[in-house]
Design a protein that fits this description.
Strand content of chain A: 25-35%
Strand content of chain B: 25-35%
CATH topology of chain A: Rossmann fold
Distance between the termini of chain A: 7 Å
CATH class of chain B: Alpha Beta
CATH architecture of chain A: 3-Layer(aba) Sandwich
Distance between the termini of chain B: 18 Å
CATH architecture of chain B: Alpha-Beta Barrel
Number of strands of chain A: 13
Radius of gyration of chain A: 15 Å
Number of helices of chain B: 11
Shape of chain A: globular
Largest sheet of chain A: 8 strands, mixed
Number of strands of chain B: 12
Structural class of chain A: alpha/beta
Number of domains of chain A: 1
Largest sheet of chain B: 8 strands, parallel, barrel
Number of domains of chain B: 1
Oligomer: heterodimer
Shape of chain B: globular
CATH topology of chain B: TIM Barrel
Chain lengths: ~200, ~250
C-alpha cells in the first residue's frame, strides 16, 4: 500500500512517515498536483497556523488537486491541523478558506480552559467508527491544539471535551480525520493508523 | 473525559550521553539517550524531554543527531532544548524530530524569539523553560543554568512569554533541583495561576508523594524528573498506579 503524505512546507512529517512504515505502508511525499491525482490514499498532516497550511497548499497548487481527489473518491486522512483544513474556515485565520469538505467553521477553545489543549485526553465514540475499531472505550490520545471543530459536525464519530465537545474523530465516505496525533499516541494511536490502512486496502 | 496529568522523564545530554546534572558533584554517565528513551516509551512515559547541557562546542555539535536517534525510538511526544538562541536553532531541533522546542536564556535576552517561533511553528511547539530561585517571598527568573539573576519576577515573565505565544511553561526550581526534597509546589501553583497554558513542574522529585503533592497542591499539569527514573528508584508504571489509585487522572498505557 502506497500512501502519499502531503508536504506543504511545515509539519513534522518524519514521525508520521515512520509510524506508517512501521505498519508496512510505503510512503511518498506529495509536493505537487500530479502526486495527489495518482494517489491511492492521501494523508494530510499539519501543525502550526491554519493560514500557513492553506497558503502552503495554495502555493504548491495542491488546494484544487485535493478538492479533485475528494470528488474522485480517493481516501484522504487528516491529522490535527489537517483535520481543521478540511473545514470551510477557521477563527484562527478569518478570511482564509479551508478545503471546504465540511461546511462548518473551526472554533477557538474558550478562555475558561487552558489553551493550547496539550496532553493526553479521552475520546468517546459517538457513532460506529472504523478508525476506532478494536480500541477500548475512552482511550487516551495525545492532543496539541488551540482550535477545534464542534462535535456537532455531522461526520463526527468520536468526540472529546475541552471547553466544548469537539470532533476528535471524523469519518464521512472517503474522508476521515483525527484532531489528536495518532503518531504520538503510543500503541493506541498506531491502531488508528492501522485501521486507516486496512480501510483502504 | 479527563485531560491526564503527564509524567515526563528528562534526559540531560552532554556530548551524546545522558548525564546526571548535579551542579557541584560533576557529571555522571547515565547511559545512551536512545536506549533510555526507548525504555521510557515502553514503560508508559507520556512524553520525553531532551535537554542539551553540553558545556563544549564539540558536545553541542552532536545534539541534533541525539534528537534524531531519540525521536526514532518514540511514539509519544518529544520536547528538546538547551542553548536555543535563534529561529534557525529552533527550526533545526524541530526538523530533527522534536515536537516542541524549549527556550530559556535567549528568550529572556530577546523575548521576540518566542513570538517568532510561535508564529512560525504554533504555540503548541514553544515551551518556555523557566529557572527560578526563591528570594524571601518572591521568585526570580534566572538564566545560564541558574547562575545568573535577571531581577525579573518569575510569574510576570511567564505571563509575558504566554502573551508572546509560549504554549507551555517548564518550571524548574533551582533551590530544589537535585535535592530530592520534593517539588516546589508553592512556586508551581503561583505560576499556574498566572498563566492560561499548561505548566510542567521540575526539580526535587524523589517520592511518589512528591508527585501527588505537585499535581494537587502544586496545580501542575505535568511533572518532570530525571535521575529517579534513570537510577530505577521508581518505575514509571509504579508511579502511575500510585497516582491513579489516589484519584489523579493518569493515562494507563496498554
Amino acid at each position: 500500500m502506497k500512501v502519499f503524505v502531503v508536504d506543504y512546507g511545515a509539519g513534522n512529517l518524519p514521525s508520521v512517515e515512520r509510524a506508517l512504515r512501521s505498519l508496512g505502508a510505503e510512503t511518498k511525499r506529495a509536493t505537487e498536483p500530479r502526486h495527489v491525482a495518482d494517489a491511492q490514499a492521501i494523508i494530510l498532516p499539519g501543525v502550526g497556523h491554519f493560514a500557513a497550511l492553506v497558503a502552503g497548499l495554495r502555493e504548491r497548487n495542491l488546494t484544487d488537486s485535493l478538492r479533485a481527489a475528494n470528488k474522485a473518491g480517493i481516501p484522504i486522512f487528516g491529522i490535527c491541523l489537517g483535520l481543521q483544513a478540511m473545514f470551510a474556515s477557521s477563527e484562527e485565520a478569518p478570511g482564509e478558506s479551508g478545503l471546504g469538505f465540511f461546511p462548518q467553521e473551526i472554533h477557538t477553545l474558550p478562555p475558561n480552559v487552558k489553551s493550547p489543549h496539550i496532553g493526553w485526553n479521552q475520546v468517546r465514540a459517538t457513532r460506529e467508527s472504523s478508525l476506532l475499531k478494536g480500541i477500548p472505550a475512552d482511550s487516551y490520545f495525545y492532543f496539541a491544539h488551540s482550535y477545534a471543530a464542534p462535535a456537532t459536525a455531522e461526520s463526527t464519530v468520536g468526540a472529546c471535551d475541552h471547553g466544548f465537545p469537539f470532533a476528535a474523530v471524523i469519518e464521512s465516505g472517503n474522508l476521515s480525520a483525527v484532531q489528536f496525533h495518532p503518531e504520538k499516541s503510543g500503541e493506541t494511536g498506531l491502531q488508528v493508523l492501522r485501521n486507516f490502512l486496512e480501510s483502504i486496502e | 473525559m479527563t485531560l491526564a496529568r503527564r509524567i515526563i522523564p528528562c534526559l540531560d545530554v552532554d556530548g551524546g550521553r545522558v548525564v546526571k546534572g548535579i551542579e557541584f558533584a560533576g557529571l555522571r554517565d547515565m547511559g545512551d539517550p536512545a536506549e533510555l528513551a526507548a525504555r521510557y516509551n515502553c514503560e508508559g512515559a507520556d512524553e520525553i524531554v531532551v535537554l542539551d547541557i553540553s558545556a563544549s562546542v564539540e558536545g553541542r555539535a552532536t545534539f541534533l543527531e541525539t534528537i534524531r536517534r531519540v525521536a526514532a525510538q518514540l511514539n509519544i511526544p518529544l520536547t528538546a532544548g538547551g542553548g536555543i538562541r535563534t529561529m534557525a536553532n529552533g527550526r533545526a531541533v524541530l526538523r530533527a524530530g522534536a515536537d516542541k522546542v524549549t527556550v530559556n536564556t535567549a528568550a529572556l535576552e530577546r523575548p521576540q524569539l518566542i513570538s517568532e517561533l510561535s508564529q512560525q511553528f504554533g504555540a503548541q511547539a514553544v515551551v518556555l523553560s523557566l529557572d527560578v530561585k526563591r528570594k524571601g517571598n518572591s521568585w526570580q527568573a534566572f538564566t545560564h543554568g541558574g547562575r545568573q539573576a535577571t531581577g525579573r519576577d518569575a510569574a510576570e515573565w511567564a505571563a509575558e512569554a504566554v502573551s508572546r505565544g509560549a504554549g507551555e511553561i517548564l518550571i524548574t526550581s533551582i533551590d530544589k533541583d537535585g535535592t530530592r526534597s520534593g517539588f516546589d509546589c508553592e512556586l508551581t501553583a503561583r505560576i499556574a495561576a498566572a498563566v492560561s497554558v499548561p505548566v510542567i513542574a521540575s526539580g526535587g522529585a524523589s517520592t511518589y508523594d512528591n508527585f501527588l503533592d505537585v499535581f494537587t497542591a502544586g496545580c501542575a499539569d505535568a511533572a518532570l524528573a530525571a535521575s529517579i527514573f534513570h537510577e530505577e528508584t521508581h518505575s514509571i508504571a509504579g508511579l502511575k498506579i500510585f497516582l491513579s489509585e489516589r484519584g489523579v487522572p493518569i493515562r494507563m498505557s496498554r
